[in-house]
Amino acid sequence: MAKMINSKQLKENMVYSQLKNGLDVYIFPKPGYSKQYAIYATKYGSNDTAFVIPGDKQPTLVPDGIAHFLEHKLFEEEHGNVFESYSKLGAQPNAFTNFNTTAYHFTSTDNFYDCLDVLVGFVGRPYFTAENVEKEKGIIAQEIKMYEDEPNWRVFFNMLGGLYQNHPVRRDIAGTVDSIQKIDKDLLYKCYNTFYHPSNMVLFIVGDVDHERIFKQLDGHFDNSLTKSEEIKRIYPDEPAQVNESMVKQKLAVSRPLFALGFKDIPLNEGGDKLLEKLIVNDILMDMFAGTSSQLYNKLYEEGLINDTFQWGYTGEKDYGYAMLTGETSDTGKVIDVIFDEVNKIKNSPFEQDYFMRIKKKKIGEFVRIFNSLEVIGYLFVSLYQKDISIFDYMNKLDSIAYSQVIDAFNSVIDIDKSTVSVVEPNK
Q: In the chain, how long is the greatest CA-to-CA distance?
């Protein structure tokens, strides 16, 4: 039975239903929009290499990179390729695998319901053979080698390797050339059957669509005898509070040095309301600390230490979190010194409350504007859903954030003793 979920603040609503097999379906109506967007995601990413399959007692261990490998293989069908099907319908498909999620999505301006058939069809219809798995190993090995020489990728993953001692977030999403050689069709089917059960997935649709037609359409795609599965137990190693390395350097073919400075946070080990609060508090904090109106940003810019590649932000999941500043620089030593000096200044003389209110109002405006982009709504919805957070709870929580929470977070998260500096230097 479908139910309506409303947000009075945003003046938006969603239609929600859970199918008999446990699949959560959310439809976000956007009357008058010419585009439609659908994203079909599973709670399965590169971090999930140790888990207990429902019904088993012993853990299953799989090679690094298998979630990403699976994403690649699902696009290949016994007869033809999924991209060809979308091309005939005039739609743009894509997919991604990150640390915690694998998602398949498309944007359409016409033939939406046919495109939805393709999406739900191919994700639910794996086709793995010994031959096509071996062929894919060569393709993914080339992709891995390409990223080994990609400076922005390396500066980021070197930072994660410096921050984390044991957690799988320190490992490359695609795995290694060696790890993917251990993947075979039986292992792919085992991971598929575990993590691609509908009760571990979500389907989100946004646009000018007919929700009743969609629910009827979905009924025809699934085996009615399939019931909701038990939750998968994921196994992650204990992670110390201390960083693995405070400095990581690598030489690559770059014209200017790159840096990524990470601050390791203490995870909540839970999702929902507390994690939402942490995400918003740290988002405000990082904008106050390093955003374009901050003293730090203006000092770095005036001294020629950063350019328009400079970025800042906070990443928070149930089991890990970190703040990061990254970009190109003319002097890696000096840029880090300036940042650390600013950290110490703020510890001694905290941000002013008026500044906090300005940034908070800015964040409210940014969040409201998100709802003009179907793709951004979809990506944010799935990202929050995987953390047991509703997108409609975001605004209420943002409204409730207090100045003192941001000051406490700064003192807790922005800790020089729990930081890693990753640098990629020119190899000449």
A: 66
